[in-house]
Automatic annotation (TrEMBL):
<feature type="transmembrane region" description="Helical">
    <location>
        <begin position="314"/>
        <end position="345"/>
    </location>
</feature>
<feature type="transmembrane region" description="Helical">
    <location>
        <begin position="67"/>
        <end position="88"/>
    </location>
</feature>
<feature type="transmembrane region" description="Helical">
    <location>
        <begin position="13"/>
        <end position="46"/>
    </location>
</feature>
<protein>
    <submittedName>
        <fullName>AI-2E family transporter</fullName>
    </submittedName>
</protein>
<dbReference type="Pfam" id="PF01594">
    <property type="entry name" value="AI-2E_transport"/>
</dbReference>
<feature type="transmembrane region" description="Helical">
    <location>
        <begin position="161"/>
        <end position="180"/>
    </location>
</feature>
<comment type="similarity">
    <text>Belongs to the autoinducer-2 exporter (AI-2E) (TC 2.A.86) family.</text>
</comment>
<keyword id="KW-1133">Transmembrane helix</keyword>
<keyword id="KW-0812">Transmembrane</keyword>
<feature type="transmembrane region" description="Helical">
    <location>
        <begin position="275"/>
        <end position="294"/>
    </location>
</feature>
<keyword id="KW-0472">Membrane</keyword>
<dbReference type="GO" id="GO:0055085">
    <property type="term" value="P:transmembrane transport"/>
</dbReference>
<dbReference type="GO" id="GO:0016020">
    <property type="term" value="C:membrane"/>
</dbReference>
<feature type="transmembrane region" description="Helical">
    <location>
        <begin position="245"/>
        <end position="268"/>
    </location>
</feature>
<dbReference type="InterPro" id="IPR002549">
    <property type="entry name" value="AI-2E-like"/>
</dbReference>
<feature type="transmembrane region" description="Helical">
    <location>
        <begin position="220"/>
        <end position="239"/>
    </location>
</feature>
Amino acid sequence: MPLSLTAEQKQTVFWVGVWTAFVCLLVLLGPVLTPFLAAAIIAYALNPAVDRLCRVRLGRWPLPRTAAVTVVITLFAAALCALVLIVVPVLRKEIPLLQAAIPAFMAKLNAALAPRLQELGVQVRFDPAGVKQIVTEQLAASGDQIWSALLNSARIGGTAVLGWLATLTLVPVVLFYLLLDWPALLSRIAKAVPRRWVNPAAHMAMEADALLAQYLRGQLTVMLVLAAYYSAALAIAGFDVALPVGILTGLLVFIPYLGFGIGLVLALMAAVLQFADWSGVVAVAVIYGLGQVIEGFVLTPRLVGERIGLGPLTVIFALLAFGQLFGFVGVLLALPASAVLAVALRHLRRHYLASAFYNA
């Protein structure tokens, strides 16, 4: 007996098929959508600032949205440039000094470790000249070597280089137009939702938006607290580069592991260069170890995890799971994406507990 469908069921099957095909198309176009996705994430974070500026009145007229978007994007770009200007001078200052200080550091390492290792029957001697040569080749390549490497990279991976340049060019352009059309874009998305699902979808969207806003505020608080902690702790320990290294470590904490790793490497370089003994290295180990404990067990679980309804174990699992599934981008989006999924799962659980299947 052939299966007969009503007109409404046929329409449902048709539109489900259309949306399924659309999702599959988006998956296939994933590499092309990278700048659009990145711009959309940044636009979501910056849109509240644009809305606040639009409420500012110039005499009798509100500030045009185009002007508000321009101001916000300019300030965002200035913040990124400031971060680069903080990092680059530190690297340019420390890397040549590190190269010059390697022989003395290796001699101290030999003097400290070699006798103890010999007592254990291990014959090890560090070669300062060899290590210096390796580091020199890696960190202090001549201009000709750099240009030849760049040219070889361009010849071998020209398409990849052009792709990165296109992405970096497209992101600010897409970001500008997304912020400009954000209210109209949300209105079009709301109108695309089937009418019988409008109220539940709007409720879930508002709940997810509130959670993400709490996440952003919590993450910003963690960044500021850690930037102040690392800067103050390194300054108390007597580091000359306490302020730039501390600020960099704190501001990059939103990238799990990478921000901490960059700050730790810079602090260790400063310790090797500035201190004649091991006190600088010990100070860095204590400061950054304590910073990780404060961040991992106090700040992130309380200011970020609890605000979005995720416990410490859930936060750790989300970071590992999204990193495994989506790589580095997944690590960045693990907590906000988990917050949105938590909203959906809460509604699904509520529906399940009220269903006849559960109560039968």
